[in-house]
């Protein structure tokens, strides 16, 4: 029997679009969905790409592939897929959501905010748009504050020449060419350096008990180095790890002593644990998660918007997840029935009864008010 239940008009419209895709494209997309759920993102990317090659006008498949690009930190490709999906289907709110997330990760906060605001206009019930808009506002305010501070410093008159000789101040640390930040938990500190194109062949990471260094060979005549010395406290170099991504390097350091670091590097006022008062030791040990961007104060996202809710499956994704559970737990006959009915009906019928569908061709059953057409008819 067909899986029948009432659906919102947006879901009916979405299913109508899926029906026009060739069965082989739909089959590949479903396999890609399963790989995505299993976190096999490379396989999911390959399968979505095959499906899109067959059905290049499917906005939903482009949006789904954009989700894989986000998981692989390939934000440029995610933006390309969502832009094409928006051109094909301007009312696709999920395309605007994923475009905004990709732009946010590339620090294009104004563009990201515009995408989130458009998506919110299309789907005001999705609370993620409101959350991401607040995040964008926080980052934009930070950028404006930094620009205002820089302008004020440039406009300030030079300090008068001191009559009495004063000690020479320490040379300020030069501004870094590439942004970095860090997060921590009681046992580890993770430093993220945003370097597009860095990999294990051109980037050398060095660990010592109180220092971290990075040396990146950008090209034949260009390189970049950064060092954190001394670190706030000691680390365990053999238990530190490095992961390279398309746009960043993630360095995870094991703390020798559990607790909270007040900063990534120690300053002149730094005290070792055995020099601290009981109150200071308790403050470090009573750790709470924090993050701090280079050159700025720590952000308390709880005060801004609270924790970002995990993106839950909705619409087609939720329906696919439900059917995948049935398929995964079903017998061989149930699986054969689901595959046969889905493919023969163009995605409009999904039966688990092999006795009903095994001996006949399953005809398509379009939603009320829609007409069933074959893919070959659309090319005429």
Task: Write up this protein.
The protein has 380 residues and is α+β, with helices and mostly antiparallel strands. Helices cover 45% and strands 12% of the residues. It contains 14 helices and 8 strands. The strands form 2 sheets. It has a 5-stranded antiparallel beta sheet with strand order 6-7-2-1-8, with no helix packed on it. Strand 6 and strand 7 form a beta hairpin. Helix 7 packs antiparallel against helix 8. The model is unreliable at 1-19 and 287-295 (pLDDT under 50).
Brief characterization of the structure:
By secondary structure, the protein is of the alpha+beta class. The chain has helices at residues 9-19, 23-37, 41-54, 59-71, 75-88, 93-105, 109-122, 127-155, 278-285, 301-304, 316-329, 332-344, 354-357, 375-378; strands at 180-184, 188-193, 203-208, 211-219, 222-228, 241-244, 249-254, 290-293.
Strand order of the largest sheet: 6-7-2-1-8
Shape label: elongated
Largest sheet: 5 strands, antiparallel
Radius of gyration: 27 Å
Q: How far is the N terminus from the C terminus? A: 33 Å
Report the helical percentage: 40-55%
**Could you state the order of secondary-structure elements as H and E?**
HHHHHHHHEEEEEEEHEHHHHH
Annotation field: number of helices = 14
Structural class: alpha+beta
Mean pLDDT: 80
């Amino acid at each position: 029997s067909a899986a029948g239940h009432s659906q919102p008009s947006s879901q009916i419209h979405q299913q109508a679009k899926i029906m026009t895709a060739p069965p082989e494209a739909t089959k590949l997309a479903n396999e890609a969905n399963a790989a995505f759920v299993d976190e096999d993102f490379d396989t999911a990317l390959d399968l979505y790409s095959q499906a899109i090659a067959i059905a290049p006008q499917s906005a939903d498949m482009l949006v789904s592939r954009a989700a894989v690009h986000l998981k692989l930190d390939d934000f440029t490709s995610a933006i390309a897929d969502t832009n094409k999906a928006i051109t094909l289907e301007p009312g696709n709110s999920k395309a605007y959501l994923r475009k905004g997330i990709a732009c946010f990760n590339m620090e294009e906060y104004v563009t990201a905010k515009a995408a989130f605001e458009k998506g919110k206009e299309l789907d005001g019930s999705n609370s993620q748009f409101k959350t991401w808009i607040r995040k964008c506002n926080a980052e934009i305010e930070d950028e404006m504050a930094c620009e205002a501070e820089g302008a004020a410093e440039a406009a300030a008159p030079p300090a008068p020449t001191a009559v009495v000789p004063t000690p020479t101040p320490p040379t300020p640390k030069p501004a870094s060419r590439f942004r970095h930040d860090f997060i921590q938990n009681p046992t580890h500190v993770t430093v993220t350096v945003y370097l597009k194109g860095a990999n294990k062949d051109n980037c050398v990471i060095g660990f010592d008990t109180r220092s971290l260094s990075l040396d990146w060979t950008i090209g034949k005549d260009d390189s970049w180095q950064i060092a954190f010395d001394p670190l706030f406290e000691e680390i365990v170099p053999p238990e530190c790890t490095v992961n390279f991504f398309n746009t960043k390097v993630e360095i995870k350091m094991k703390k020798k002593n559990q607790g909270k670091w007040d900063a990534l590097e120690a300053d002149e006022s730094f005290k070792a644990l055995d020099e601290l008062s009981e109150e200071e030791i308790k403050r470090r040990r009573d750790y709470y998660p924090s993050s701090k961007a280079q050159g700025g104060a720590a952000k308390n996202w709880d005060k801004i918007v609270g924790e970002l809710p995990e993106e839950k499956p909705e619409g087609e994704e939720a329906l696919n997840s439900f059917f995948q559970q049935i398929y995964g737990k079903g017998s061989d006959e149930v699986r054969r029935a689901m595959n046969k009915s889905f493919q023969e009906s163009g995605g409009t019928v999904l039966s688990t009864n092999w006795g009903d569908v095994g001996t006949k061709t399953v005809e398509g059953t379009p939603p009320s008010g829609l007409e069933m057409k074959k893919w070959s008819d659309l090319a005429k």
